[in-house]
Amino acid sequence: MEMKTWPRFVWQTAAPKVQILLIGATSEESEFLQCVRAGVHGYLPLEASAKDVVEGIRALQSGEAICPGRLCGTLFRYLERERGEFLPFRDRATKNGVDALIPLIAEGLKNKEIANRFCLSEQTVKNHVYRMKHKIGAEDRLSIVQVCGTQGFMS
Q1: Nearest 5°: CA angle at 19, between 13 and 25?
Q2: Are strands 42-44 and 21-23 parallel, antiparallel or unpaired?
Q3: Looking at the domain assignment, is residue 7 inside a domain?
Q4: What letter would DSSP give residue 94?
Q5: How far apart (Å, rounded) are the C-alpha atoms in residues 37 and 51?
Q6: Are 44 and 66 within 8 A, CB to CB?
Q7: Segment 94-128, tens digit of pLDDT
Q8: How many domains does the chain have?
Q9: Global pTM value
């Protein structure tokens, strides 16, 4: 099947709950993005081993997405351009890093959940929280919220 027909094929044949793993159809970024927009949930290069394919299928079944690093970067840049909601932490918290983190900590979000919102690693969020605790003399996350609330960092 020619690559240009893949997005249409996926769109026309895929049921909403079907997870689609595309294998080696393209290495072109624009065609890859067409496939993602059409509903593909994962992509493996043509040279993927049988073991990689089985692991990819299992990952899709457990709700994960499969994407090579180079194309993953393409996907994040696309999402940033199209939706504007996946901006890096430094761009979303320009005045003060705590402006963006404090409300999420106050909501009770875990480091991993905060990391997912900002497309950061969990360790990066842990580092930010650690630095905030020491900078303001807080003992724990609750203390961060209390101190920042009294200092006007939260509305």
Answers
A1: 75
A2: parallel
A3: yes
A4: S
A5: 27
A6: yes
A7: 344 556 788 888 899 999 888 878 777 788 888 88
A8: 2
A9: 0.43
